[in-house]
Amino acid sequence: MNAMRGVSVGVFPCNVMRVRKYCSRIDDDHHHSHSNGRIRKGGVVVRNSSNKVDETETDVIVIGSGIGGLSCAALLARYEQDVVVFESHDHAGGAAHSFDVKGYKFDSGPSLFSGLQSRGPQANPLAQVLDALGESVPCATYDSWMVHVPEADFLSRIGPTEFLKDLHNYAGPEAVQEWQKLLDAVLPLSTAAMALPPLSVRGDFGVLYTAAARYAPSLFNTFFQMGPQAALRSTQLLSPFSQILDSLQLKNPFIRNWIDLLSFLLAGVKSDSILSAEMVYMFAEWYKPGGCLEYPLDGAAGIVDALIRGLEKFGGRISLQSHVEKIVVENDRAIGVKLRSGQFIRAKKAVVSNASMWDTLKLLPQEVVPKSYSNRINTTSQCESFMHLHLGFDAEGIRSDLGIHHIVVNDWERGVDADQNVVLISVPSVLTPNLAPIGKHVLHAYLPGTEPFELWEGLDRKSAEYRNLKAQRSEIMWRAVERAVGPGFSREKCEVKLVGSPLTHQRFLRRNRGTYGPAIQAGTDTFPGHSTPIPHLYCCGDSTFPGIGVPAVAASGAIVANSLVSVSQHSQLLDAIGI
């Protein structure tokens, strides 16, 4: 659920001419085609007689059109770099792409967002990228989501006081006291966690000017206003969030379970492994006065389209169905890519991979990769994979107050990271009816990074064994949907039923073992940086700092883009957007 902040809940139709065909499916029973490349240029499809990219040289090549890759490419175009994005899929967006079946427009990944319309130094990283591009994402706002936990079913509200009422009703006064104690400690830390604008960061010593020197006065003022106790506690921002919980002596079982749930939805790990800064950032968005959640009016596709509009506005291009077969390395540096078609495209300045660390490694000639680098990648723990259930059904008989988001936890004792335990459900058509045919609902349910790949490894997707396993492992999602949507829902009346497995993730998203991403434990390890041992090869996305989630991957793309231009150009951009 990599969209929690602007984000999984650890994340998206528009008025530009689409290259998307809306023909692929999340279900493995449908075929996904690869052809030799179509380039979007200025909103139109450009082909030449040989079906190849018109240019064979560019400044920067970006592999993959996830939100991190698109953020990087669009900002590079804004910096007047010649940039091309190569995407294997026939849809842009990576894990956040959308697809259409019978008029139902489904998100494939992130579904819970906030901060998309924020602006200024403390804005969501994705919002800062969009601001730099002169783009925006129209959103509907709301302030609650439905929670189905062993204790009760209740409507969880956003804001500093509303959730306290829920806690009092369902967890008791002790939980209220501990939650207030947590807010009192954490919210002041948000000023430190948000002190540096994400767009000011770069991956070289130029950061001393674009971030440290530029914002030194405001940083000093921030820590002065926090007071000595909060300033001292801010040193915990790079430690696991559980350390803050332990220092506050928070022991209420519901509070600890709830925070584990939020941590897991944000980054795929529990509170003992998530970076405190990530949780503090989320708390500042969710539990501040006037806080709200947002959902793009066009679904996750609205975010992807806004980034592509920005990319194309400044002369960048995206080539769909252009499968990168390998990264070409000569004289020990990355010089371009070779497509499945056999075509070679040269990159004069850099190649940026938005693929996972494991999938990027597969694109490199083995002989040029330092053993220490490959060993680190191959020994990095992975989050588990996903199960998906995409449904389209008639709204007749469904209660009118059905909310957009539902979270079902079957058993706290098993842990929120246990398989077949937590189910996330999104019904975005309750807020944006244009995502489904008139009088219908579109629904996406999923197991958030808890499905073991080992159960599926080696299965033939056309076999009866595979179909039976899909039916068995998706039953938990069907039951959760029936619980959340209520008695008016019927499986038999669904007009669209699609089940996605870890093999779906692996195949359509080019995700090694269908993984959610690296399972990096705060305090014991850190997410890799963006440079690699191969000169001129960079990485962005959820395998790099700052990690998993829509805001994080947007920030990673921005860091790489900033690092590939001069400090002067970077500073001019910060001036242009007023941060």
Automatic annotation (TrEMBL):
Q: Which organism is it from?
A: Medicago truncatula
The entry's protein name is All-trans-retinol 13,14-reductase
One GO biological-process annotation of the entry reads:
carotenoid metabolic process
Which domain of life does the UniProt lineage start with? Eukaryota
> Which residue numbers delimit the Amine oxidase domain?
67-562
**Residue ranges the record marks as coiled coil:** none
Gene Ontology molecular function = oxidoreductase activity
Note the PANTHER family from the entry: FAD_NAD(P)-BINDING OXIDOREDUCTASE FAMILY PROTEIN (PTHR46313:SF1), PTHR46313
